[in-house]
Amino acid sequence: MTEVRNVIIIGSGPAGWTAGIYTGRADLHPLLFAGETWEGDQKQRFAKKLWGGQLMNTTEIENYPGFPKDLGQKLIETMRDQAVEFGCEVVMARVTEVNLIEHPFRVTALGKDYLAKVVIVSTGARPKMLQVKGENEWFGVTPGISSCATCDGFSYRGGHVAVIGGGDTAMEEALFLTHHAQKVTVIHRRDQLRASKIMQERARRNPKIEFIWNSAVTQISGNTHFQGLHLKNTKTSQERDFAVDGVFLGIGHTPNTDLFKDRLALDANGYIITDPRMQTNIPGVFACGDCVDHLYRQAITAAGMGCIAAIEAERRLVEYNETSSSQAGI
Ligand code: NDP
Questions:
Q1: Are 107 and 95 in contact (CB under 8 A)?
Q2: How many angstroms does the Cα of residue 164 sit away from the middle of ligand 1?
Q3: What confidence tens digit (pLDDT) does each residue in 77-117 have?
Q4: Is the CB of residue 270 below 6 angstroms from any atom belonging to ligand 1?
């Protein structure tokens, strides 16, 4: 018979590992599915790590309290070691199916079923990509392409950076980058911004920000060194190279929640809906981190949510165990 675990955690970013640390420390012997290890040849410079979430593919982290300067990868590995130390079991595999209708819940990975009384979803989000040549190679490389000005903006102090997009994220990234860069060019595919009026006005008023309208990025350029972008005017079809020190993608994020479509309540953009206790619409299923949060998207906020989910999961297990004991006449 398949063992019924107390807690299964799906996802290995800051939210997942924090949930692993807390439920591990509560002696719940959590099982965490971390995702697959690598895409591409790991000896190559541009190979991407598939487990550990977005921090694994950024460079330095300087805004995680207590870690004044650390590599994203090292921060995640430290969190993992801390969770494992407290008895969190880790499976390096992607979950391919979940059944949250029947209890205990069922989670499938590598063709094997796992059962759990409580599930914590921390599958994160991924930045939307332009899908152009050179993008995969330079993404997460500094100098190169980033999707987080808060994380990587400091590396471009005194430089010239481009922000792609016309929504609130792009405006926010551009405004933040003016603290570091000498010049910020927002490149938008139309001649009207989608961003809220207040964000538009702030960006337009900032003397360090300039706009290039009606322009689509068709290629990211660089050989041994990052060079910039190739642009195509969407009205005239005219093409040109545009040299910059770094590029920030501000074209939105996609939550990694395909697995939960028709299984959990999602908002119109695919983010999992929870209450302030990280409880989803299914009692005993919690969600935390960037798969829930489209506003802050920081390692520290994700970790905070992972902590809440773990504490609530523990409470739920106490209730569950009390109910099953009384049902069994104990
Ligand atoms: P949005 O979907 O609002 O905007 C995405 C922008 O990227 C659009 O301008 C879009 O162009 C452009 N874009 C999308 N795909 C491509 C592509 N392939 N090539 C070039 N450009 C592209 O996403 P955001 O992340 O900006 O915002 C998401 C939500 O979060 C919104 O509701 C926003 O208001 C909110 N938010 C709020 C903030 C705040 O209040 N401080 C900060 C950040 C986000 P087009 O306009 O032509 O479609």
A1: yes
A2: 10
A3: 999 999 999 999 999 999 999 999 999 999 999 999 999 99
A4: no
